[in-house]
Amino acid sequence: MKAAQPDPARRALRSLRLLPPRVPLPNMAVRAVGVAEVVIATAALAGGGALWWLVAACYAAFVVVAVGLWRRGDVESCGCFGAVESEPGLVHVVVTAVGLALALAAALGGARGPLAAALDDAGEGPLLLASAGLATVLVVLVLAELPKLNTAVREVRGAGR
User: Fold this and answer.
1) Could you give the count of Cα atoms lying within 13 Å of 133 in the half-sphere of its Cβ?
2) Buried b (16+ CB within 10 A) or exposed e, 68-102
């Protein structure tokens, strides 16, 4: 999603002031990062093993960015999901840190890629893939929709005073 709609991620990264103001951060660079994320994740899901270390490195970077955006407190969206707003907050940091922990556990354990397991095992493989898909949807919902729900609840509580 970031590759298709890179501008929110570009703005979020720009807000961290990692680059001097005069150094451009083109949408094409953000698109390349989004594509790289997909390639690394797909490779780890297919092959597993040492590729989980690359996933862990990506998640470590995500945690640093999520913490930086959360500490700023004035960023509307992290840009993780393209144009879908995902307010960086504590939930975002925790979910990203859990992703890092899972990637590290897979790397340390030398886990096989679930795609390879699905092809080898007709019994558990499809269930594993379905579980991974469901987990992905839940993460997107938690990061993109939970902050909106929290804002709505605060507004309703404030209106009742």
Assistant:
1) 7
2) bbbeeeebebbbbbbebbbbbbebbbebbbebbeb
In this predicted model, what pLDDT tens digit does every residue of 124-153 receive, in sequence order? 667 777 777 888 888 888 887 877 777 788
Polymer length in residues for the chain:
161
- Of the candidates 88, 103, 66, 75, the one whose C-alpha atom is nearest the C-alpha of residue 142 is 88
CA distances from 82 to 3, 16, 24, 27, 78 (A): 7, 18, 19, 11, 9
- d(Cα 56, Cα 101) in Å, to the nearest integer? 8
* Straight-line distance from the first to the last Cα atom of the chain, in angstroms, rounded to the nearest whole number: 40
What percent of the chain is predicted at pLDDT more than 70? 92
pLDDT digits (tens, 9 = 90+) for 21-60: 888 888 898 899 999 999 998 899 888 889 999 999 999 9
